[in-house]
Design brief:
With about 475 residues, the protein is an alpha/beta fold. It is about 60% helix and about 10% strand. It has an 8-stranded mixed beta sheet with strand order 3-2-4-1-5-6-7-8, with helices on both faces. α8 crosses α9, α10 packs parallel to α11 and α12 runs parallel beside α13. The structure holds guanosine-5'-diphosphate and magnesium ion (MG). The site of guanosine-5'-diphosphate (GDP) has 19 residues, from α10.
Length: about 475
């Protein structure tokens, strides 16, 4: 049995399927479009997008290209005119018709040529426009970069000024404030004794002796002071207690001015001396002393002082013995805004300091401040280690260390003098920093140090803040002590 094939039904089914496929395609496309394109960070944004933001640019095309297009235009016009003339002349002869046909072909050729030249002009125009825009964009980005850098530099300067202000705000303590405890100690007792209108007699001298002997100036210096008073009394120069006080003050200032003894200490008191004439930078300062006297703190404060005076400074973290000593110095480097060379805990301190000096030479840094350990397994071990470091520094830079700065803690009183003597014998100390004067009534020890050792006192420490390191000036010191 023949089955009649229904072509109409098939066509309708196919049409429905096609329509369905079109609808599905539209739905999918609409969904894809609705998804927002991922947001690009500004620096990765498509250059095209940035170019579109630019104002339109004028471009100049090569004259030769424009001339070729114009010639093609003229050729079209000429072919058009020739065709029109041929058509006018056409008299139905086969030659005339052939001539018209030929002119028509010429016109079509000329037109094609013109189309080609016009397309080339617009391509060249587009290319030139893109190039000009890319250049404009590069210029704009360069300007933006420069503006950003200038802004960053401005922010850095402002931050710097803020830091300096903070450091200055920290500079609250004066020398007189730092010496308050010592002034309240033996100086207060001297004032109480010599500020009276009592007669100058043996009992007063006995009390003076007692005050001076218990004042941490040391037996040697106390004897020295008493003798000078007795001599002047014998010469009848001192007729009342206030004159005795003035004489003592004078004598103390004279002793405090003694710190210009040996050749190594010619620069005298008050601040770090300059490099000797002819010596090449960097100036290498080796900071030594027993544990806890304030070496690391002094290195940090000194770095800030020198930095403020315009000197470039590098810190060398030579205390690799005590865990966390490096981190402590790191914090100071940060506060003083100076670079630092550090090794691993337990590494060879000589090697670390050698590297520090080498880096300072390469980077033409003015001064290297070398922190060192204050405690090893034995005292002899410490001195040997420090002597070895001293030799290493000499190897790193002839003439180094230019300064061996001993840090002693005033709160240890007479012990400070003993330490200074030991370090001086082993290393040849060229300057002393007496720290923690703010925390003790034993400040008189400074008089003993100057009298017995005659090593210049470079600085005194009167607190834990960055600005609590003052260059030592004997006159100023006596003024503050007796104020
Ligand atoms: N009050 C006071 N404390 C100080 C002074 N110098 C250092 N110190 C403190 O003494 C402690 C030991 O100092 P540090 O520098 O670590 O000593 P180092 O072991 O010799 O390096 C720290 O807590 C410092 O803050 C000072 O002049 N005055
Ligand atoms: Mg330390």
């Amino acid at each position: 049995m023949a089955v009649a094939f229904d072509y109409r039904a098939l066509a309708i089914a196919v049409a429905i399927l096609i329509a369905l496929a079109i609808v599905v395609a539209f739905v999918i496309r609409a969904r894809v479009r609705r998804k927002a394109p991922p947001e690009l960070p500004p620096s990765e944004a498509r250059p095209g997008a940035r170019i579109e933001e630019l104002p339109p640019v004028e471009v100049v095309l090569p004259a030769e290209r424009l001339a070729r297009r114009d010639r093609a235009k003229d050729d079209v016009a000429a072919a058009q005119a020739a065709l029109e003339a041929a058509e006018a002349r056409a008299a139905g002869t086969p030659q005339a018709r052939a001539d018209v046909e030929r002119r028509r072909r010429d016109l079509a050729d000329a037109q094609r040529r013109l189309d080609y030249e016009a397309r080339k002009v617009s391509e060249a125009e587009e290319k030139a426009r893109r190039e000009a825009q890319a250049q404009a964009l590069a210029r704009r980005e360069q300007a933006e970069r420069e503006a950003r850098q200038a802004e960053e530099a401005r922010a850095r300067t402002a931050q710097e000024a803020q830091r300096t202000k903070l450091a200055e705000a920290e500079a609250g303590r004066t020398l007189a404030e730092g010496l308050a405890k010592t002034r309240g100690g033996f100086v207060a007792r001297l004032n109480a004794l010599l500020g009276t209108s009592k007669a100058l007699d043996d009992s007063m001298l006995a009390e003076l002796e007692e005050i001076l002997f218990s004042a941490d100036v040391g037996v040697h210096t106390a004897t020295h002071l008493l003798e000078s008073v007795r001599e002047r009394l014998a010469r009848r120069e001192l007729t009342d207690p206030s004159k005795v006080k003035a004489a003592l003050r004078e004598e103390i200032e004279r002793i405090l001015s003694l710190g210009t003894g040996g050749p190594a200490s010619e620069a005298g008191h008050g601040g770090l001396p300059d490099l000797p004439p002819g010596a090449a930078p960097p100036q290498v300062v080796m900071v030594v002393g027993v544990n806890g006297t304030g070496k690391t703190t002094t290195v940090g404060k000194l770095a800030a002082r020198l930095g403020q005076a315009g000197k470039s400074v590098l810190l060398g973290a030579g205390d690799t013995f005590r865990a966390a000593a490096g981190e402590q110095l790191d914090v100071w480097a940060d506060r003083a805004h100076v670079p630092i060379v550090r090794g691993k805990d337990g590494s060879d301190p000589g090697a670390v300091l050698f590297d520090a000096v080498a880096r300072a030479k390469v980077e033409q840094i003015g001064a290297v401040l070398c922190d060192t350990a204050g405690r090893l397994h034995t005292k002899a071990g410490l001195m040997d280690e420090l002597k070895r470091i001293e030799r290493t520094l000499e190897k790193a830079h002839g003439g180094a260390p230019h300064e061996v700065l001993l840090v002693v803690d005033a709160t240890t009183g007479q012990n400070a003098i003993a330490q200074a003597r030991q370090f001086n014998d082993a290393l040849g100390v060229t300057g002393i920093v007496l720290t923690k004067l703010d925390g003790t009534a034993k400040g008189g020890v400074i008089i003993g140090i100057c009298d017995e050792l005659k090593i210049p006192i470079r600085y005194v420490g009167i607190g834990e803040k960055i600005s609590d390191l003052k260059p030592f000036d004997p006159h100023e010191f006596v003024e503050a002590l007796f104020s």
